[in-house]
Amino acid sequence: MRARTGDDPVIVKFEFNEVVVPAKPGMISSETLAKPLHMLPVGGKAAWSVQFDALPKLVVRMTLANGVVALGEFYRDHEWSRIEAIADGLLGVSIADLTLQELPLPLVREFDGFELAIWDGWAKTLGLPLHRLLGGPVREKVLCHAWSSHRTLDEIGPWVRAYQDQGYHSIKLKADLEDDVVGLCEQIAVHAHGMKVVFDPNQRWENMASAKLRIRGLEQVGNVQLLEDPIPKWMIPDYADLCRFSSIPITQHIALPYIYQGQRVHDIIALIQQRAADGFNFNAGLAKFAQLNAIAEAANLWCFHGSEVDLGILEAMYLHQSIAAKSCVWSSDIFGRLIREHDLLETPLRFEPPYAFVPEGPGLGVSLDPAALERYGVRHEVFA
């Protein structure tokens, strides 16, 4: 152990703000198609039963003995007992003694929020932007798409055209077996010619028969850029068949925060070995995202960055990750401020559709808006 000095980055305080930030009216889906999108069970409720913007989010300010205040944001639906236990274990620890790629934290959904605060604190201590800890930028800006959940046939065309008029080149849409995805794409082609579509059924097309039927129709329309997770993930041989069958690239979402679904970094290796994906959507913390990117880059496959329609701190992290990842070529899921009422940032992230830009300054390069924390806050805790 090193000798401690007054400038040592020892963790001395955690300040947590739990918030609920709703979506703007009408921004999630058509009113007649209000389908909850949170695919994990919540409390005593089953999966797919709660809309994501009704769930609390947690932001943290981690104070170091050297005066640095680092930021982190957790994925929706955290558990306070874990938060308190992990914070208690980190108080008094110097982040200079930690190995960033192997932090002494349990593998739980709350991992990435603490990891982000630690990385932000170390980057600020060094006076570097966060992406420098990831190897530095390989691009100047991040390509992004617009987003919507389920839309009706009569609404989808004008809705997508409005995003095209803003400058977006593509839009990501949710889809289940009840959605007329071919009809949706036909309407988009009429109202927003040249606009591309990324469809994400979230594994709800169930089997090869239903997926193939829809793929052939979508191929004829010709404006689908990617098809993500059309069938259940365990059907790896069927995914390999779909990749051979479809002229539309088939992507798989490797979402490490979905720990309860068993998703891990090694999933990408199995998918590449069995030729069961043409590319990927990656959701992960800083160290694991770097691992996923390295594997995809070595296999010469592309990815885009996923999200859970998050607030500004996590989206700032996504931008730092994306500009430092060579495989991150496709348009990414960074659109939270489009959908939610606020991102909790004092200065919003810079969007010039279809691109988003990394904030300038050390660490994440963002600061919290105290008035927004007060407005949307539902709980406040301090551990020191």
List the helices and strands and how they pair.
Elements: E1 11-19, E2 57-64, E3 69-73, H1 80-90, H2 111-126, E4 142-143, E5 146-148, H3 153-166, E6 170-174, H4 181-191, E7 196-200, H5 208-221, E8 224-228, H6 236-245, E9 250-255, H7 267-273, E10 279-283, H8 286-298, E11 302-305, H9 312-323, H10 336-339, E12 350-352, E13 355-357, H11 370-376, E14 377-383
Parallel strand pairs: 5-6, 6-7, 7-8, 8-9, 9-10, 10-11
Antiparallel strand pairs: 1-2, 1-14, 2-3, 4-13, 12-13
Helix pairs in contact: 3-4, 4-5
Domain Mandelate racemase/muconate lactonizing enzyme C-terminal: 153-249
GO molecular function, one term: catalytic activity
Protein name: Mandelate racemase
Describe this entry's structure for a reader.
The chain contains eleven helices and 14 strands. The protein is of the alpha/beta class. The chain has two domains: 132 residues, Enolase-like, domain 1; 217 residues, Alpha-Beta Barrel (TIM Barrel). The longest helix is centred in the first third of the chain and has 16 residues. The two termini are 22 Å apart. The mean pLDDT is 96.
CATH class of the largest domain: Alpha Beta
SS class: alpha/beta
CATH topology of the largest domain: TIM Barrel
Strand content: 15-25%
**What order do the helices and strands follow?**
EEEHHEEHEHEHEHEHEHEHHEEHE
What keyword list fits this structure?
384 residues; alpha/beta; Enolase-like, domain 1; TIM Barrel; 2 domains; 11 helices; 31% helix; globular; Mandelate racemase; Mandelate_racemase_C
